[in-house]
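Before going further, learn to read the protein records used in this course. The integers have meaning only within a learned vocabulary of local backbone shapes. The record below shows the convention in full.
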Amino acid sequence: MTKMIFVNLPVADLAASVAFYESLGFTKNPQFSDETAACMVWSETINVMLLTHEKWATFTTRPIPPSTSSEVSLALSCDSREMVDAMNNAAGANGGTADINPVQDHGFMYGRDMADPDGHIWGAMWMDPAAIPPADAQ
């Protein structure tokens, strides 16, 4: 079996969160979605499980951090700088916050961070491996 990752995130408004992630290019997998959770697919191996606070509480008794906290920052690779910009713009236009951190532009690598409606931090990034400077030149 191919190794996969399922990122589980607590969300206050499931429908709004589904709409937000769809605006970024995720697709909803109805097989693993119901009124308490939605499986949002980024690729064949990367999925984000959006869980209502009530559903989240069935997995852990630990408190949900406030949206002003950063418990983790997740990065998604994009095919181009333009896709990074489009994803960041979609985040800002669909209930999230665009450019939550400074833009990172290193020439061979470009990234912009955004927050979803619940404050979870995502970084859209593009990289050209052929343009990475040699280790001794850095």
In short: The mean pLDDT is 94. Helices lie at 14-24, 53-56, 81-93. Strands lie at 5-11, 27-29, 37-41, 46-52, 73-77, 104-105, 109-115, 121-127. The chain has one domain: 5-60+72-130.
